[in-house]
Design brief:
The complex is a heterodimer of chains A (249) and B (439).
Chain A (H helix, E strand, L loop, with lengths): L1 E10 L2 E11 L4 E5 L6 H9 L5 E9 L2 E2 L5 H6 L2 E4 L6 E5 H15 L7 H14 L10 E2 L5 H15 L3 E5 L7 H14 L5 E6 L12 E6 L2 E6 L2 H9 L1 H8 L1
Parallel strand pairs in A: 3-10, 3-11, 6-9, 9-10
Antiparallel strand pairs in A: 1-2, 1-4, 4-5, 7-8, 11-12
Helix pairs in contact in A: 3-5, 5-6
Chain B lengths: L2 H7 L1 H6 L7 H16 L15 H4 L3 E2 L10 H4 L10 E6 L2 E2 L12 E4 H6 L4 H7 L9 H9 L4 E5 L9 E7 L5 E4 L2 E6 L4 E10 L5 E11 L4 E8 L5 E11 L4 E8 L4 E10 L5 E10 L4 E10 L5 E10 L4 E10 L7 E10 L5 E10 L5 E9 L3 H9 L4 H17 L5 H14 L9
Parallel strand pairs in B: 1-7, 2-6, 5-8, 6-9, 7-10, 8-10, 9-11, 10-12, 11-13, 12-14, 13-15, 14-16, 15-17, 16-18, 17-19, 18-20, 19-21
Antiparallel strand pairs in B: 2-3, 4-5
Helix pairs in contact in B: 3-8, 9-10
Classes of the chains: A alpha/beta (249), B alpha/beta (439).
Protein name (chain B): Iron-regulated ABC transporter permease protein SufD
Pfam family, one (chain B): SUFBD_core
Family (chain B): Belongs to the iron-sulfur cluster assembly SufBD family.
Chain lengths: 249, 439
């Protein structure tokens, strides 16, 4: 599904990604771990087309199509979703109206009619229940005054609404207490199917107890330096990132 | 001949043409003309007009006295009216009342013409008591209006009357080749416990050089509630100077929402005078302009009595080479203890060439007051843009959604539903999008 070949990316002329290769197949869950500053969030920004980052080399293919020249919204229309580490507050736009706009813009791009209001409401209700979200919450302004946990849960709610092909969850576990973490992980697991894929970006292995990855990659200094199964996460937790740093040197 | 000279030398002939006015008016006009003669048109040398120049506009050869009635069909002007709502309407074309487009009343309240109020004996007392009493007599543009104004809206709401439908005051312009100076004059008196909603609009139907110098006086008696809306979305040939003076009595609540979406040059002089305790004054505005448009908000809230509040909230979005000015003055008299004055001006510049000049001006002489002001100038938030685009919302729509969100605080307090929808549509149209929902 996703194939990243030798990606180099920089921000303000500072090279952050130094040749990343990654292949994610439908039905798989990949975890990308690594110390702070390794380039984890840059990787998610580059896949989703954030214009603050410049891709200097390499290609990002989704189902055989090169995404490099596509705008963030075009990538989203092709089924790429990012759960933000720091979701942005947008006062004056309710969660519901935001989702209606997002879904209908995607449908418009695919040449479909707008989703009928009744269908939209039904979907909102169903997905809100999946993530244990109070209906009142949905009429509040997007992310405004939300707690850290509420923001993350709202991200996964949006993911459930948009049903992406490829979901990248960037530090979704940070700011979540254990109950919220369970709800979010349970939501992600229910949304998982043989046709979609999930990339988890995380600093700690805590989330991986709930969403079990098929592959774990360790990112360090802009490169994937180690790849393994879920046991690699445990090894990392035990030995710390210094183990990686030392083995790379 | 320069416009100023023309106005001074034409005055005698103008006054001779007036018939049957209350005698006091001659003195009022003459006194005002003297002040205008002394001060002339404002220039950039004056602090209050530092960023707004009338020079290019004054060069036109204006017709200064309204001529005959121009007939315009309802279908041509329908879009400028609240057509779905039942309203009282006062419609003027080139400064002259258009009876077939209007809907006046004397049934339980007066919604009628200033020209009747200035001449008919039954209105003499009320004109003597209120006409030209709220204005700043040292302001030259207001003085010019006072000298020449003959027509406009006269609205008199008696005690305890809750006016069931909004009142629309619409000034339309349509001329060919002839530049036009129009000077409407409105007087609105809202009795004790009465409640009214009013919408005012100045609009060119065709491209023509129209210079409107409007003056509005509002007297809100004890516990009166007045919701006033100004919709400014003129063509790029129209210039508007709006002088509005509001005198509030004890416990009255007056709000003015100013929506500035168009016109070549717009200057809003909005003045509130609090003359009683526990008064509430609200001044809100949305400015959304582009091209070479220029909008200048000059507000004054004069807190003259204790225990009153004022709330100012102006949002501005400026694109292309447009220029915005916000100057907000809050004056607190030494006896006006426990005043709560709040002022906020938030601005977004969408282009490198757009300008906003924002200046709060607080003059506080009491020692137990709460006054705050805040001003922000920002660009479009890149992170928010990326967030929305990541969800599949295209750049243009994402920008519009952010701008909608930005204006939301002001939109929330619009109490006429059709107006709210209309304003939301104008915003969407200006931003080049159609949104799937109304705000």
């Amino acid at each position: 599904m996703l194939k990243i070949n030798n990606i180099h990316a920089s921000v303000e002329d500072k090279e952050i990604l130094k040749g990343i290769n990654l292949e994610v197949k439908a039905g798989e869950v990949h975890a990308i771990m690594g110390p702070n500053g390794a380039g984890k969030s840059t990787l998610s920004s580059v896949i989703t087309g954030n214009e603050a980052f410049e891709v200097t080399q390499g290609e990002i293919m989704l189902d055989g199509e090169d995404l490099s020249e596509l705008s963030p919204e075009e990538r989203a229309h092709k089924g790429v979703f990012l759960s933000f580490q720091y979701p942005v507050e947008i006062p004056g736009v309710s969660v519901t109206n935001f989702m209606k706009t997002a879904i209908n813009e995607s449908r418009k791009a695919q040449g479909l009619e707008e989703m009928p209001a009744s269908e939209m409401l039904k979907k909102i209700k169903e997905k809100a229940e999946l993530l244990d979200i109070d209906r009142k919450f949905l009429s509040r302004s997007l992310n405004e005054g939300f707690s850290g946990g509420e923001k993350k849960r709202n991200e996964i709610f949006q993911m459930a609404m948009l049903e992406p092909k490829l979901a990248i969850l960037d530090e979704t576990d940070s700011g979540l207490d254990i109950d919220a973490l369970r709800i979010v992980a349970n939501g992600v697991n229910k949304l998982k199917s043989k046709d979609n894929a999930v990339v988890l970006i995380t600093h700690y292995q805590r989330l991986l107890e709930y969403i079990v990855p098929d592959f774990v990659h360790v990112l360090y200094d802009g490169k994937i330096v180690k790849t393994g199964g879920k046991e690699l996460a445990l090894e990392l937790e035990e030995k710390g990132y210094d183990w990686i740093k030392n083995s790379v040197k | 001949m320069e416009l100023k000279e023309k106005l001074i030398s034409s005055f005698v002939a103008f006054e001779e043409g007036l018939k049957g006015e209350h005698e006091r008016l001659h003195d009022i006009r003459l006194e005002a003309l003297k002040l205008f003669e002394e001060k002339g048109f404002p220039t950039k040398k004056e602090e209050a007009w530092k960023y707004t120049s009338l020079n290019s506009i004054l060069k036109n050869d204006f017709s200064i006295i309204p001529k005959n009635e121009t007939v315009v069909e309802y279908k041509e002007v329908k879009k400028y009216l609240l057509s779905d709502s039942d309203t009282y309407k006062l419609v003027f074309i080139n400064g002259i009342f258009s009876s077939h487009l209007s809907s006046t009343t004397h049934d339980g309240l007066d919604v009628c013409l200033m020209s009747s109020a200035l001449t008919k004996p039954k209105y003499k007392m009320i004109i003597d008591a209120h006409y030209n009493t709220c204005v700043d007599k040292n302001d030259s543009m207001t003085a010019l209006n006072t000298a020449y104004a003959t027509e406009g809206a006269f609205i008199n709401i008696p005690k305890s009357k809750v006016v069931s439908k909004p009142i629309e005051i619409i000034y339309l312009s349509t001329t060919e080749n002839q530049a036009l100076l129009v000077q409407p004059r409105n007087l609105i008196i809202v009795g004790e416990n009465a409640h009214v909603q009013i919408l005012e609009r100045h609009q060119s139907i065709t491209e023509c050089s129209v210079f409107t110098n409007s003056t509005t006086e509002i007297v809100a008696h004890k516990r009166a509630i007045v919701d006033f809306y100004k919709l400014q979305n003129d063509l790029d040939t129209g210039t508007l100077i709006d002088n509005t003076f509001i005198k509030q009595k004890q416990e009255s609540r007056v709000s003015v929402h100013t929506f500035s979406f168009g016109g070549k040059l717009t200057r809003n002089n909005l003045n509130f005078y609090q003359e009683g305790e526990r008064i509430d004054s609200t001044l809100k505005g949305i400015t959304l302009i582009d091209g070479k448009q220029h909008v200048d908000h000059y507000t004054l809230v004069s807190h003259n009595q204790p225990n009153c509040e004022s709330h100012q909230n102006y949002k501005g979005i400026y694109d292309d080479n447009s220029i915005g000015v916000f100057n907000g003055k809050i004056y607190v008299d030494k006896i006006a203890q426990k005043t709560d004055g709040f002022q906020q001006s938030n601005n977004v510049l969408l282009s490198d060439k757009a300008h906003i000049y924002a200046k709060p001006q607080l003059e506080i002489f009491a020692d137990d007051v709460k006054c705050s002001h805040g001003c922000t100038i920002g660009q479009l938030n890149d992170e928010a843009m990326f967030y929305m685009r990541q969800r599949g919302i295209p750049k243009k729509e994402a920008k519009a959604l952010l701008m909608y969100a930005f204006t939301d605080e002001v939109m929330q307090s619009v109490k006429i539903p059709e107006l709210k929808t209309k304003v939301a549509r104008v915003i969407a149209k200006k931003l080049g999008v159609s949104m799937g929902f109304e705000i």
